Amino acid sequence: MDNLIRDIEDRNDIDRLMLRFYSRVMADDLIGYIFTDVAKLDLDRHLPVIGDFWETIIFQTGVYTRHGRNPLQVHGELNEKEPLLPEHFRRWLEIFTQITDELFAGEKADFIKVRAAAIAERMMQFVGGVQRGEISFPRSV
Ligand code: HEM
After folding, report:
1. Across 84-103, average pLDDT
2. With contact defined as beta carbons under 8 Å apart, do 86 and 120 qualify?
3. pLDDT per residue over 26-43, tens digit each?
4. Measured in Å, how far apart are the chain's first and last C-alpha atoms?
5. CA distance 1 to 75
6. 39: alpha, beta or left, given left = phi > 0 and alpha = psi -120 to 50?
7. Rounded to whole angstroms, how far apart are CA atoms 116 and 113?
8. 136 in a domain, yes or no?
9. Would you call 134 exposed, middle or buried from its count of C-beta atoms within 10 A (0-12, 13-18, 19+)?
10. How far apart are CA 137 and CA 121, in angstroms?
11. For FRET with 37, which of 7, 80, 92, 115 sits at 20 to 30 Å CA-CA?
12. pLDDT-based confidence at residue 136 (cuts at 50, 70, 90)
């Protein structure tokens, strides 16, 4: 049943998580505009790609590689349009953690939160370095 909290079991669960995450994040007072106004994110096009990213992390299927994309690069480009700040990353992670806890509990749910936090930290360090001129961008990341 849908309202029973259980672990993330398959791709469908990832898609549910992402749909809910992006609808919450896009309506957020602090970071929503980055998705809607800066990136003008087309959810129908992006959700399958983002689902592939998390499927690759959680179930190691490798499907994200077919897009030939690199999230650090994507966010590096986004940071050129609008500086991504530590408080943006904090809010992103807060919402991600909250939505995961609303829907799931278990080993995979713990793992996705740990991975999200680690990637957010790495991305934040990267764009911070670019903003301070310590890292030149574009570069191969
Ligand atoms: C400040 C926090 C963040 C903001 C504002 C943000 C915003 C965005 C936006 C606007 C896009 C679409 C970019 C485009 O194609 O035009 C995007 C893509 C994406 N984001 Fe983030 N993001 C943030 C942090 C993160 C973090 C921490 C992760 C992972 C843990 C993440 C994972 C992804 C992935 C996988 C994509 C799709 C990349 C692709 O197209 O291949 N984001 N993000």
Report:
1. 98
2. no
3. 999 999 999 999 999 999
4. 42
5. 36
6. alpha
7. 5
8. no
9. exposed
10. 18
11. 115
12. very high
Q: By residue range, what is the domain housing residue 123?
A: 17-131
89 with 123: CB under 8 angstroms?
yes
Cis, bond preceding 83 (omega within 30 deg of 0)? no
Is residue 61 domain-resident?
yes
Name the residue of 15, 40, 73, 78 whose CB sits within 8 Å of the most ligand 1 atoms, as the mutation to test its pocket: 78
pTM comes to 0.95
How many other CB atoms sit within 10 Å of the CB of residue 95? 19
Tens digits of residue pLDDT in 52-63: 999 999 999 999
At 77 the pLDDT is 96
* 12, part of any domain: no
Probe residue for ligand 1, chosen from 74, 97, 121 as the CB with the greatest number of ligand atoms within 8 Å: 74
Number of domains in the chain: 1
Assigned domain for 1 exists? no
Question: Ligand 1 centre and the CA of 75: distance in Å?
Answer: 6
Residue 140: the pLDDT is 56
